[in-house]
Design a protein that fits this description.
Length: 319
């Protein structure tokens, strides 16, 4: 498909990518959304916590959060609200360890853990939904794009469309970008939260999750080398990135799919803008607003409280 021209215009007060990324996360309050939590079991005797907003609609969106996110983040609740108010049921789900409770098994979540997404989809199908769309932010965007790509023509026909927002399609170079000096405050925050979770779980299973070298972890790549990769069966961080980067699965996507990656997103490398693939692909639409930051996209002159990315996602899925 051709590259999609973007209509997004950032509010004039959001004059750089840091403000577009940080202010929505810190200041935005989304009202009118009350989740109903459901816990489902996984085949490895663990659990996933799902947060629903339902009104007996036939269409469902499944929304996936980003690294160290959860369903209560403003970007998740804003997306849930716009679909709830437009005749969709909403299933927002928390990755393992992200719902406020430590999961029971050694494994956690990662950018390519599509087996957990499959469990969530299977559960929705068992409840009778036959028109399902997938939405993912950042890491969750990589997850949904990898899922629809790895399934290709074998994807369940009840899954109709997919949207990824602020997606680190190439994980290795994106981790390098996050480790750059201009992103140091973000990386430190991610690492602080990730290390905290490791230390908490280590108290439960110290023999399986040693923390004696955790102070040597200085970057996300270090963390993935020491924890993410070995825990989840990868040789090292590079092997994990290569096997799980959604960029490697785009060409086999077989449903209408929209990728929204702002050009000023400081988390994303050049490889995260697959222009040549999108130009030739029958199903992948690539939209690259000049601004928007990472999972930002606040709207100007809006009275309904919705962000541009939410309206854009609804328009694509509901078209």
């Amino acid at each position: 498909m051709p590259i999609v021209p973007s209509s997004y215009k950032a509010p004039y007060l959001y004059f750089n990518h840091h403000l577009e990324t940080i202010l929505p996360a810190l200041l935005r309050k989304v009202k009118g959304i009350t989740y109903r939590r459901e816990r489902i079991s996984t085949p490895d005797n663990d659990f996933l916590d799902l947060d629903w907003v339902t009104n007996d609609n036939k269409k469902l969106v499944i929304i996936c959060h980003g690294l160290e996110g959860s369903t209560d983040r403003p970007y998740m609740m804003g997306m849930a609200k716009i679909f709830t108010n437009n005749s969709f049921d909403v299933l927002s789900w928390n990755f393992r360890g992200c719902s406020g409770e430590v999961n029971w098994q050694l494994r956690a979540y990662h950018s390519g853990a599509t087996e957990d997404l499959q469990e969530v989809i299977n559960h929705a199908i068992q409840l009778g939904y036959s028109d399902i769309s997938l939405i993912g932010f950042s890491l969750g965007g990589n997850l949904v794009l990898k899922y629809v790509g790895e399934n290709g023509t074998h994807l369940d026909p009840r899954i109709k469309k997919c949207v990824g927002i602020s997606v680190p399609l190439h994980l290795h170079t994106s981790c390098i970008e996050i480790s750059s000096l201009r992103n140091i405050m973000y990386e430190r925050r991610f690492l602080r939260n990730l290390k905290k979770k490791v230390k908490i779980k280590s108290k439960i299973m110290p023999d399986k999750l040693p923390t004696n070298n955790i102070d040597h972890v200085k970057t996300l790549i270090d963390f993935d080398n020491q924890y993410t990769a070995p825990i989840h069966g990868f040789k090292n961080a590079l092997d994990y990135y290569e096997q799980c980067s959604a960029l490697n699965f785009l060409e086999t996507i077989n449903i209408p799919t929209l990728i929204i990656n702002a050009k000023n997103d400081s988390f994303l490398s050049n490889e995260c803008y697959p222009i040549e693939i999108a130009k030739l692909h029958p199903f992948v639409y690539l939209e690259m607003p000049e601004k928007g930051g990472h999972c930002g996209f606040p709207s100007s002159h809006t009275t309904d409280g919705y962000y541009w990315s939410e309206k854009r996602t609804l328009a694509f899925i509901d078209s």
